[in-house]
Amino acid sequence: MKKYKYYFRKPRSEITKDILTLLLISGGIALAATSPYFGIAIWKSLKNRNKYPKTKVSSKFCELRKRGFIMLEKDGHDIKLTLTPKGEKMAGYMQINRMKIQPPKKWDSLWRVLTFDISNLKTAQRNTIRKLLKELGFQCLQKSVWVHAFNCKAEIEIIKDFFELKENEVRLIVAKDIGDNRELKRKFSLL
Asked: 95 and 24 in contact (C-beta within 8 Å)?
């Protein structure tokens, strides 16, 4: 899958999220070409299918296809549904919004210090990253210096890839001592 570029709008409906997430996870769905009910076949694939009526899923599928998020590929007698690059961007945005940093059973006594220096030309990205760091539980030490108590290297790599940031723009440092950390330990429930 290609790297995502930043996508500014959230999808308006849960059906859109579920359909795009399903296609993102599965890499596509193969359907029998003899079936004219593609939307219903998608509906049967959804894990939350009792949440939506069949007709609504079918119409949402058609809308996503017309807007260029989903592509149909013919392969002999089968048809495969896949995400277009535009669909991958939207699905990637939804994925980054659901990230969480899981606390371990026992803290390793190391602090993860994240520094970022993002150009003024990328103000929207910088502000979005700050908001995302707050949602992930990072605590702000200074304007562009954030700290977290738990391992978050994978999540930071996803953020860097998603926003196409370089190593000199975002840096994760693992430190044993960051000075007076009583307030931080309290915020991370480590006392």
From this structure: yes
Handedness of CA 165, 166, 168, 171 (dihedral sign): positive
Domains of the chain as residue ranges with CATH? 14-97 (1.10.10.10), 111-187 (3.30.70.240)
The amino acid occupying position 87 is G
| Structure token pair of residue 10 | 């959230």
Q: What is the pTM of this model?
A: 0.58
pLDDT digits (tens, 9 = 90+) for 60-94: 778 888 888 888 777 777 767 777 888 877 776 66
For the stretch 170-189, pLDDT in tens is 999 999 999 999 999 999 99
> Using an 8 Å Cβ cutoff, are 96 and 103 in contact?
no
Task: List, as own/partner pairs, every contact residues 41-47 make where C-beta atoms lie below 8 angstroms and the sequence separation is at least 24, other chains included.
Answer: 42/81, 46/18, 46/19, 46/22, 47/18, 47/22
Q: How would you classify the pairing of strands 139-142 and 170-175? A: unpaired
